[in-house]
Protein 1
Amino acid sequence: MALAPNVYDAEPIPEAAKAEIDRLLASGDLFRYTAPADAPVALLEREFADMMGSKYALAVSSCSAALFLSLRALDLPFGAKVLIPAFTFAAVPSAVVHANCLPVLVEVAENYRIDMADFAAKLPEAQAVIISHMRGHTSDMDAIMALCDEAGIPVVEDAAHSLGTLWAGRKVGTIGKIGCFSFQSYKLVNSGEGGILITDDADLVARAVIMSGAYEHNWKKHKGPEGQNDPELAEAFARWQNQLPLYNQRLSNLSAAVIRPQLAEVPRRVRDGRANHDYVAAALNSSPWLSVPEALGPEERAPDSIQFNLVGFDTDEEARAFAAAAEARGVKVQVFGLSTDNARAFWNWNFIPGETPDLPQTRAMLMRACDVRLPPRLNRAELDFVAGALISAAEDIKGETRAYGT
């Protein structure tokens, strides 16, 4: 009997990182501002910005830190309302609260994307928007940006799950005013922890750099498109020197050394992740009990997991039984709304001021939406195992149907 694949381990760190890590360990030079110039973190920022086609990048301790600094850099007033999708990770509303703003949750449809009618209805009360491309599912960015641009409302993209995703040929994370990415272990590029923000706005990045912990004149070690002598960036830094609080959310040189060699791996991981996802999605859609929502037309995804909806599962007991049956076959399934204290279920975000909003569409989706890890490194036999286990688990609960592959 085939063994269940390990879907939790990340890909090995490239060999190219090891010599640099050894050098850093031998020198003890782990702080990003110790080197006079060209510290690994500074090099990572320039390389990532160039890869994305952005002017500026700031590497920080997490994507959550990047989101927080983005909101602070926008200089929003105390209590400003920030629209976010009701389907996202708890770190997103947390970043809004940390920035002394108020999250306003927007309904999400059964395809995991923002409900545009609810978004348009709530936009007039907002002073900023965070679009979470949750699990790599891109909402209608053309419609979102048209509404926000007309209203003069800045958009921050939470692209933690979307490195390598394209929307109408544009790189996700470069569509809004600021894009934020994650280097946590379950993301496409892995340093255990870490994040980065990108923008073309020199004033915004200067504010974010200083608040990230660039005390005294360490901002001089950050690179713009013209290197460390970028005049636009230097003017912005000089404007904000000593004017902003420091939150000390820096990335270390050791993390940057782990990340930098992986940037070259991004195209391969995107290609393999998309192929794996689409192969398993086609299999799951052959079952009358499982449904993988289609991507929106302009979207080219870079997935490392798969989400699908349970169809015809009328009770929570049936949905839980499905998850148990899949786990018994070796495949762990998370049903977002039925997983105890799930950080992606909006009713568990009790730190948001006020009463929990009534979001029936999002709640119904979360009660039947399933999540399975599907890293790019899996081979065809392992993908068949995952798909077969999920289809068989659904058949266990809903009755025998045609076998997968027939």
Note: Residues 401-406 have pLDDT under 50 and may be disordered.
Protein 2
Amino acid sequence: MENRQKNRTIIAALVIGVLITLVKFVAYFVTHSNAILTDALENIINIVAGAFAFYSIYLSARPKDKNHPYGHGKVEFFAVGFEGALIIFAGIAIMYKAVDALIHPKQIQLLMTGAGITAFAGAANFILGTFLVRRGKKLRSMILEADGKHLLSDSYTSVGLIVGLLIIQFTGMYMLDSLLSILLGGLILYSGYKLLRKSVSGLMDEADIELVKQIIRILEENRKPQWIDVHNLRAQKYGADIHIDCHITMPYYFDLQRVHDEVTFVEKMIAEKSKTQVEIFIHVDPCLEQCCYYCQVEGCPVRKSEHTTTYIWEQDNVMNNSKHFVN
């Protein structure tokens, strides 16, 4: 059901994106402005990236198999990287054309009409981008969210473009059209770099600090005394799924059934609180004598020292690969 909603959302975004692109090209043919052409060319990239996003959403929804034991969710990072690479290519091409236009200038006209059409297209991009970001967060889709943020940045660029066109109209400095196109090309390059950076960090399994903080907050708010400490926590997102590895210290006299029940409780609790599919690998450590001073188990039959310290679980102590007394 969720994947169906993602597909419907991206198809709707593609159709609207095509219409917005046509509107922007109308503005270019009316004015012959390089800056407006820059804006229109970027929208073509949005459409191509959206088509690839549609395929990646379909692929990421496929179940795990023998060749992909962690599922197909990482294809979303490829999709984001592909979009970033396309945007960088478009930025370079735009800047090249703008420099050529400086050397071989062409007459531009009807800038007020072009500004009006661009304002309409920019507003449409803003509405569509806001919708995609909200849907991406609700459906836990990095692709939809990335597309939405890109469209929002495109709408902000349109505002700058309109201001530039008005300046050109009232000053008669038509050379500013190509200079504005170069500036917009630079902004497009930076936008592409950020998407490419996000893709590489995901493919290289860079730590998702915000996700880790979310998991730590869930554990802290629902902690039980028998979870003496949590350490070596790592978390990654693969599509909409979350994969978590961690160590939990428990009393060494717990039998295997008690340990299993505690681990199962942690898994279900995190899945329920995070409202997504969670796969957790928990390594259970037995407590040591040095743990007694921060152990909160009441009536412990083997306690060697009184409980004197309570650690608040946070990034510094939960991500370390050691029990709290070693910190």
Note: The longest strand covers residues 229-238.
